[in-house]
Design a protein that fits this description.
There is one protein chain. By secondary structure, the chain is α/β, with parallel strands linked by helices. The protein has five domains: 86 residues, Alpha-Beta Plaits; 172 residues, Rossmann fold, CATH 3.40.50.300; 79 residues, Helicase, Ruva Protein, domain 3, CATH 1.10.8; 172 residues, 3-Layer(aba) Sandwich (Rossmann fold); 90 residues, Helicase, Ruva Protein, domain 3. 44% of the residues lie in helices and 13% in strands. It has 24 helices and 16 strands. β13, α16 and β14 form a beta-alpha-beta unit. The radius of gyration is 32 Å and the shape is elongated. It starts with a strand and ends in an 8-residue tail after the last helix.
Length: 678
């Protein structure tokens, strides 16, 4: 009777009371013998493997019946079943007339009593060699596997590595090299989350396990992309690289732009052609970290022409990022002392503060910066040690201001209304926590024109909430609204969640958040999906996160009216008024007095300049307030510098101010009001 191998891939959804994933729940319910037809072979958190004594179609049907009976909460679109013919096994241990003659390769085990029966060996602990069936892994395989196990995170890749080591002896014994190579891999991860590291280790593991018929095969990694055709360019099908003698490449193709389009005829024709050209080479595909439903759809489209094994590399949480940073340093021969190590998390948070973080790539850059600082310090002080101290780390970490948050807020020009509102909010939160009350939701809207202090105040608020014991670290992560949107179907929600993870314990400042609501007629506009995801995160992490939406009053009002759920989770609105003439003058003189001696005549000229600013400019929607002032100041001292090079002194004069003011006024008249100071 024909037999079929079935692979069942399930999402790692909410677990039961004993912490078991849906796959583990099903395996527990079915037991070793799933039914008269299906036998459970392997299990993990996200996949089960069965052997069925039937053709593929009835085997799939039987497995679906079991799914519906035992896991009815999982609709069919949330899991995937792959089937392929089971390899023929040698005829051993059969109780019929076709029993194969016994030899040294298929001797039956001696019978053992229940009391003396040896435990079943774990295939991860041993993989017999073809020649001598030693119960230990060859040195190279063991070393490679140990390196993979030493990687931080990457659970599914480690499972794949152990699976390859387990199956390798059988592949070599049966000569099933082509069957093994026909398997492709789908790596699901974001930039910097370890894809290249995994692929290089996979090359090493394939070499160590000798999974190709020809001896002495070396694997090399080739990475390429397969862009989605746009405009008149048409589809440019990538060609596979030529195979050098004695070299089998591992080819990874980035098909990220095809997510949501893998069912199109163009892609399927290319995939079929690719499978025909494979010729024993190992193929892998890469897509971004996407939603489970999108991953399942992509897998189904690929599985029509290839047996695909998904490998999901989850984004690294903060503790793993810290561990990876230490590993980078240790591999280069450096370690951190206790004080430096305590700054490491803050150093990573500083890298994340602008909303741009590239995982291991950023961590590697960060490690090399610290190493260089250490080497420079050693050179200047005649040292040779490799212990990185706090002064080699602190230069990259924003220094904690000696002033309290309240003092910093009080030092800002104007903003009296803002100060009173924020102090009231913080006081309410602290009172609720101290008295065992449910603390209020503290997500906020900062509304006002550019340059009115919204970003500065948000940074101070993070510090204020840390001092009050509300936030763990009081950090600050700033992004633009459209940064939350992914590039492909199913990419937006994981991308939004990653920004939230980066900002936990801190303030997440979303500038021009209403850009998410704009309908641009683009089918790939994912603004609403980003908003929905953010609403969920705001509720789930309300005790460890402050989300601030910032932007113009009218646009912010429209966004809140269009989304009642968002408005209810942002009960506080802080209005930032445009600065008046006296406040603008104070800001200018404060900037000037930091670096220059300002004469009485110059101060008078500054006051007169701002007194003469027209009401139309000050009241314009796009007037950039403090940014306008900074622009004017930088132009003024630039004029002074030019004049000093011609024989004058480097002092600020009324003439420098007048010349800078005329230049700026001309540019202002030529621009739209929106963009002052930008």
């Amino acid at each position: 009777m024909p037999s079929t191998i079935l692979h069942l891939f399930l999402p790692d959804r909410p677990r039961d009371g004993e912490g078991r994933s849906p796959a583990r729940q099903l395996a527990h319910l079915l037991g070793p013998e799933a039914s008269g037809l299906l036998t459970l072979l392997e299990e993990s958190d996200t996949a089960l493997t069965f052997c069925a004594q039937a053709e593929a179609a009835p085997a799939r049907a039987a497995l679906r019946t079991l799914m519906e009976a035992h896991l009815p909460q999982l609709p069919p679109e949330l899991y995937m079943i792959q089937a392929y013919p089971a390899p023929e096994e040698p005829a051993v241990h059969r109780n019929d007339a076709t029993e194969a003659p016994l030899n040294e390769d298929n001797l039956p085990d001696e019978p053992k009593s229940e009391d003396t029966a040896a435990p079943r060996p774990n295939p991860r602990d041993s993989a017999p060699d073809d020649d001598n069936d030693e119960a230990i892994l060859p040195d190279l395989t063991a070393r490679t596997l140990a390196e993979i196990d030493g990687l931080v995170g990457m659970r599914e890749f480690k499972e794949l590595a152990h699976e390859i080591v387990t199956v390798a002896p059988q592949v070599r014994r049966h000569g099933s090299y082509r069957s093994f190579a026909s398997q492709t891999y789908l790596f699901v991860c974001n930039e910097g989350d370890g894809l290249t590291t995994c692929l290089k280790q996979l090359c090493r593991l394939l070499d160590a396990c000798e999974l190709f018929q020809t001896g002495g095969v070396q694997h090399r990694l080739t990475e390429a992309s397969f862009p989605y055709p746009r405009g008149k360019e048409g589809l440019k099908e990538p060609s596979l690289p030529m195979t050098a003698p004695g070299v089998e490449p591992l080819i990874c193709l980035d098909i990220s732009e095809w997510v949501g389009h893998t069912g199109e005829p163009t892609f399927r024709r290319w995939l079929m052609k690719l499978m025909q050209q494979q010729n024993g080479r190992i193929l892998a595909f890469h897509i971004p970290y996407v939603e489970q439903r999108v991953l399942q759809t992509t897998l189904l489209d690929l599985a029509d022409l290839s047996f695909v094994r998904p490998v999901v590399l989850d984004p690294h949480p903060m503790d793993e990022l810290v561990a990876i940073s230490r590993t980078f340093l240790e591999k280069n021969g450096f370690t951190l002392d206790e004080d430096a190590d305590s700054l490491l998390e803050q150093r990573i948070l500083a890298e994340k503060s602008d909303g741009h973080f590239y995982g291991m790539n950023t961590l590697s850059k960060m490690a090399h910066e610290m190493i260089y600082r250490k080497l420079l310090y050693n050179s200047r002080h005649g040292l040779t040690n490799s212990l990185i101290q706090a002064n080699q780390v602190s230069g990259f970490v924003p220094a904690e201001a000696s002033a309290t948050a309240a003092e910093m807020l009080a030092g800002l020009a104007g903003l009296e209304n803002v100060r009173s509102q924020l102090n009231a909010v913080v006081e309410q939160i602290v009172y609720a926590r101290q008295n065992g009350m449910s603390p209020p939701c503290i997500h906020m809207r900062f509304v006002g024109s550019p340059g009115t202090g919204k970003t500065t105040v948000a940074r101070i608020l993070g510090k204020m909430l840390k001092e009050a014991g509300v936030l763990r670290n009081g950090g600050f992560v700033e992004i633009h609204g459209r940064d939350l949107c992914g590039q492909y179907v199913g990419h937006t929600a994981p991308r939004t969640e990653s920004f939230v993870r980066d900002a936990l314990g801190s303030v997440l400042f979303v500038d021009e958040a209403y850009s998410l609501f704009r309908q641009e007629g683009d089918g790939r506009d994912f603004g609403q999906e980003a908003i929905d995801t953010l609403i969920t995160c705001m509720e789930n992490y309300r005790d460890d996160l402050v989300v601030i939406f910032a932007g113009y009053p009218d646009e912010m009002d429209r966004l809140m009216k269009a989304n009642a759920g968002l408005a209810s989770r942002m009960p506080y609105e802080i209005r930032f008024a445009n600065y008046g003439r006296d406040e603008l003058c104070r800001i200018f003189l404060h900037l000037a007095r930091v670096n220059f001696e300002c004469s009485e005549a110059f101060c008078t000229a500054v006051q007169n300049y701002f007194d003469a600013l027209p009401d139309k400019l000050l009241g314009a929607k796009g007037f950039s307030n403090a940014r306008f002032v900074r622009n004017l100041y930088e132009r003024t001292w630039g004029k002074a510098l030019t004049r000093s090079r011609l024989g004058g002194s480097l002092t600020l004069t009324p003439e420098d101010l007048a010349n800078a003011g005329r230049e700026l006024s001309v540019e202002v008249r030529q621009r739209s009001p929106i963009g002052f100071g930008r």
